[in-house]
Specification:
- The complex is a heterodimer of chains A (about 230) and B (about 110).
- With about 230 residues, chain A is α/β, with parallel strands linked by helices.
- Helix content of chain A is about 35%, strand content about 15%.
- In chain A, strands 3-2-1-4-6-5-7 form a 7-stranded mixed beta sheet, sandwiched between helices.
- In chain A, strand 1, helix 1 and strand 2 form a beta-alpha-beta unit.
- The longest helix of chain A is centred in the middle third of the chain and has 17 residues.
- Chain B folds into 2 domains: about 45 residues; about 45 residues.
- Chain B has 4 helices and no strands.
- In chain B, helix 1 runs antiparallel to helix 2.
- The chains are: A alpha/beta (about 230), B mainly alpha (about 110).
- Chains A and B meet through strand 3 and helix 3 of A and helix 4 of B.
Chain lengths: ~230, ~110
């Protein structure tokens, strides 16, 4: 099975090389999508074994993931793993996320911070943002323990069916919503998240379409765009 | 009365501008019709303001006709802002598609 790891990166010069070097042993192809970083992310990633795609304009994490997914589909991927460039996910948990897909138990696997493994989560995120996010997800028919996990894997079927339309962080809810709506077999597996810094809060974050309010706004707008 | 004349003059200015834009083919027929009907309605509301006053009173509202028109105008403005936002989002998505195609074609 040909496994691609898609790593969207925006101003991640401190961690991108380390992440690529750790991940490459777990998958067949690593694809870094540089979302028009203003630092040396692109140059540093180009020096690794990863395939590096570059957005000419900053379009957001969801847009970068869809670019990576498109590349993977065109190049014969059987499975894609979405992985963050800031080193907050553990590379040795990739096999856990892949296993249900390889065993045919699921079409889409989502990592969850709420299934037993210990994650030191920021107070605001754990007690305010995530409960709200769960309510929002419930509204869209999604019932998972982790409302905003970026660590996920999709098989070829799911990859072909799920086209990410939300450029910003609303893609998390969008992917979950589509997985349920399209009747895909969904499974959650426990993962650990290491918080290096608070990536996004209620009002914003790094890159386009970040922040709790932006996510809600984008999800509402999406319902009016065919 | 003077306010009504002033309002009518402003409306005529916008209607004239609209007709000029249509003649210069800067706007589509549909857009022209929409805005023509819109400005005509505003003109009629301005001329028959007293009638609207009594109509509003008959409906049981305490506000005067002009107040109701202002409320309606605010609601219409909100609607237009929302439509603009949706249009902007569509354009953003088109930009993303172009950026994606360029990045993928660069890798071929």
């Amino acid at each position: 099975m040909k496994v691609f790891c898609i790593i969207p990166a925006y101003n991640e010069e401190r961690s991108v090389v380390d992440v690529v070097n750790k991940v490459k042993a777990m998958v067949n192809v690593v694809v870094v999508v540089d979302d028009c970083s203003t630092d040396k992310t692109f140059e540093l990633a180009s020096g690794t074994e990863a395939v590096v795609l570059r957005h000419a304009l900053n379009r957001g994490q969801g847009a970068a993931l869809e670019t990576g997914d498109s590349y993977a589909l065109k190049n014969g991927a059987d499975i894609v793993v979405h992985f963050d460039a800031d080193g907050q996910f553990l590379f040795d948990e990739i096999p856990d996320v892949l296993r249900p897909l390889k065993d045919g138990e699921a079409d889409a696997v989502f990592g969850s911070r709420f299934l037993g493994k210990k994650t030191e989560m920021p107070f605001l995120k754990e007690n305010i943002l995530f409960p709200i996010a769960r309510k929002v997800n419930n509204f869209f028919g999604v019932k998972t323990t982790d409302p905003q996990s970026g660590f996920r894997a999709l098989n070829h079927k799911a990859l072909k069916m799920i086209s990410i339309q939300n450029d910003g962080s609303a893609h998390c809810t969008e992917i979950l919503t589509k997985a349920f709506r399209y009747g895909l077999k969904v499974k959650e597996v426990p993962i650990t998240v290491v918080y290096n810094e608070f990536g996004q809060g209620l009002l914003g974050g790094k890159g386009r379409g970040k922040g709790g309010l932006a996510i809600v706004r984008d999800l509402i707008l999406s319902r009016f765009i065919s | 009365m003077i306010q009504q004349i002033l309002a009518a003059l402003i409306i005529f200015f916008f209607m004239g501008r609209l007709i000029r834009q249509k003649k210069q083919k800067k706007i589509s027929g549909g857009e022209f019709s929409f805005w023509f009907i819109f400005w005509s309605s505003v003109l009629l509301a301005t001329i028959f303001l007293k009638s609207i006053d009594s109509l509003v009173a008959n409906l049981g509202f305490s506000a005067s006709g002009i107040d109701v028109l202002i409320y309606l105008a605010v609601a219409v403005l909100f609607y237009f802002v929302f439509r603009l936002r949706i249009k902007q989002e569509k354009i953003e998505r088109d930009i993303t598609k172009i950026v994606r195609e360029i990045s993928l074609s660069d890798k071929k």
